[in-house]
Write a structure and sequence with these properties.
The protein starts with 6 loop residues before the first strand and ends in an 11-residue tail after the last helix. The protein is built from 3 helices and 2 strands; from the N terminus they run ββααα.
């Protein structure tokens, strides 16, 4: 992965007895690039969400951040659809 769009944040408030921790952050189209690379390895609901995002994000996200009313409505429906894909709960039967 190219470091030019990878943001790394060091937690300066870690206690002395803890190992240093870091947070990696990618945004917008760079996040799509990363998602495209890892999507083949995702399983379950995460794979479904990834496919939906990769197929629709660019079409529903203007680069200037200005949404028409129609596009804003489609974007809201898209967000609801992505977040409605939830992990299936394991159902156990008690005997």
């Amino acid at each position: 992965m190219e470091a030019k769009f990878l943001s790394v944040a060091d937690s300066a408030h870690a206690a002395q007895n803890h190992a240093p921790n870091f947070t990696y952050a990618v945004y917008n189209r760079q996040a799509l690039w990363l998602l495209e690379k890892v999507a083949p390895y995702l399983k379950t609901y995460k794979a479904q969400r990834a496919r939906l995002i990769l197929n629709n994000y660019i079409r529903l996200t203007p680069r200037n951040g200005k949404y028409s009313e129609a596009l804003k409505s489609q974007r809201t429906k898209f967000e609801v659809e992505v977040l409605s894909i939830k992990p299936e709960r394991l159902i156990t039967t008690e005997s």
